[in-house]
Amino acid sequence: MSPPIAITPPAELETTSELTAQGIEHSLSRSAPSLLKTQPNGRTLSDTVTNGAINGSNISNGIATPPQELDASLLQFTKNTSPRPVPAAGSPEEASHKVCTDHMIQAKWTVQQGWEAPTLQPYGPLSLMPTASCLHYATECFEGMKLYRGYDGKLRLFRPKLNCERMLMSTGRIALPSFPPTELLKLIVKLCAKDGPKWLPKSKPGSFLYIRPTMIGSDSALGVQRPKEALLFVILTCFPRMDISESGMRLLASKDDMVRAWPGGFGYAKVGANYGPSLVAQGEARAQGYHQILWLFGDECTVTEAGASNFFVVWRTREGVLQLVTAPLGDKIILDGITRRSVLELARKRLAPGYEDLEAVEVVERKFSMFEIEDAVNEERMVEAFAVGTAFFVSPVGHIHFRGRDLTVPMKETTSGAYTKVVKEWLTGIMWGTEQHEWGHIVEEEE
């Protein structure tokens, strides 16, 4: 059975601790009450919310009014009168990860008024007080997406609704305000429609911009508490290609004293606190010639993620069954990656029955360990491995270093495994429009 399409607030409430669930519901009620009012199970806001008792409702003439929700129809536009030139493809400027397009989205939230009218405005610095919540307590979350210029001349997003729903889940986990995901998607599309035509011209098919929706706690009160102010912003950034070929990705398996995420934590949410603590180990791994850390958990050395990417193996069991295996979401240690989800859905539909000259595979989501990988390599049952994510896309893995030993992962197609290659081709076709697919979200351009 396929996994659910996305983690939504009700699912999050059902699978987390009682105290955290209450806090998430509180956040929904005070910043996006419509999300609770419209649940398919018929649940409604509690009396304490509808009568204005929860901080965040407004009282006018003794009558409680809900806070203003994020509303893309209120968007206000200010044109950038000093636009910058687009950097040349392959230039150091493009590779710096610092160059953003001419405009950005901003929307401010306060506990008293809710969401203010969002703005599409010139790209520029943010104004924060030194006591801002995000600077002291990591009240920050984000998403990673791409805007593609297709070979058919159209601008596309890839399954953007899932990113917006996942960001809603992340904001709830770190006490930031909620929002209807459809409204965030409208704002992202508006920014892409405005800046896409210039920064991704039709003369450069196969190019992309990186999209970074972000929310930060901007409350200037210094204290360990829920932020009473927040800022949502969306930027478009020039990014070089990061998918790896040739000899494949080199991974360094984490040691016993290195843990990225744990059960009951927040490894499943795309929050800044998941990334900062891993940068020291990541930097050391790169200094030693590795691309990413392969994060393991526990004495069993359970495989979780490859850097910030989801990790897959194709191997043959001792009974002879060919499997495509990746870690499950149940323990909430790994990120519910959009690319991960897409690979699983395509594999179940197209690879499980057998595709062209490729042998059929059994698609499995389960816990597995580095010891199992080691055995599969030693017994020549390992077929291939790859990592997937928005930044690195689909990258074959050719080498894993584990406890002093180098494990070579086969790559049948010289620079990739056969299954890795076909999955990458399918996703590339959808993203750049050579395959018309429902996952490709067309952006109508504006001049």
Automatic annotation (TrEMBL):
It holds the Pfam family Aminotran_4. It comes from the Eukaryota. The keyword Amino-acid biosynthesis applies. One of its GO terms (cellular component) is mitochondrion. GO terms for biological process: L-leucine biosynthetic process; L-valine biosynthetic process. Its EC number is 2.6.1.42. The keyword Transit peptide does not apply. Belongs to the class-IV pyridoxal-phosphate-dependent aminotransferase family. This is Branched-chain-amino-acid aminotransferase.
